[in-house]
């Protein structure tokens, strides 16, 4: 039995038992991180090295967190445990995978002059598409939320954008008011798209890779260029979110507001009693950016 068939059997078996969000998460992680490595292999062909390569690729190549690697490896372990219970195999190679220790209380260590340089370089980036992508990142959006964003999520009249539940890690519909910086750059990009393509459909991706005619899947080259220009050696794309959160905490912005700006599912029980307004994201990000304006 090949692993891909086994995974689909597991999903079908537990589709009505696990929550819908859990099934979706497993499918997405399998598609994005596991399938290309071991999906085509027979169970007895999969060794420890294959499972370790999945983890290494997540951390070193995709520059995602060890926590993400741990969650993905947990899926591989779960599928193998299911196989063992059904006498499909006798071993679980994923149980030996080595994952670096991580701390959820992660703080990015950038000095104030580095943060200012980072923002300045983004605002002066020579490619308008990547510039807009980085501006979205400054607003706390996840990379996948940015790259897979479509025009139906944008409302220029109300100056808001939405992250629907199916594109949101927290699996909830979020609406954020645009800052003037984001609005002007996004509107300019939209006008350019209209001129170059004559017609822009709501289903179209906002950021289209001309080489593949679909959304961008790799930002390593422009992101590495940005880091070099800003004289920053160590930074992941996801660190934009940590940067926004950490700096806003320092400025005394209520943690509930920061949580909403970042699109977190919750912070604690008291979050249930917070009234959420779409313009909070605007206030949080504007407050952050104003500290580093030239």
Automatic annotation (TrEMBL):
User: Could you tell me which residue ranges the Tyr recombinase domain spans?
Assistant: 103-287
Q: Where is the Core-binding (CB) domain?
A: 5-84
Q: Which UniProt keywords apply?
A: DNA integration, DNA recombination, DNA-binding
- GO molecular-function annotation terms? DNA binding
> Among the record's GO biological process terms, what is one?
DNA recombination
Q: What InterPro entries does this protein's entry cite? A: CB, DNA_brk_join_enz, Integrase-like_cat_sf, Integrase_catalytic, Integrase_recombinase_N, Phage_int_M, Phage_Integrase
The UniProt family comment states: Belongs to the 'phage' integrase family.
Q: Which residues cross the membrane?
A: none
Origin organism is: Malaciobacter halophilus
- CDD domains reported in the protein's UniProt record: INT_Rci_Hp1_C
Record's protein name:
Tyr recombinase domain-containing protein
Under the heading Pfam families, the entry gives: Phage_int_M (PF22022), Phage_integrase (PF00589)
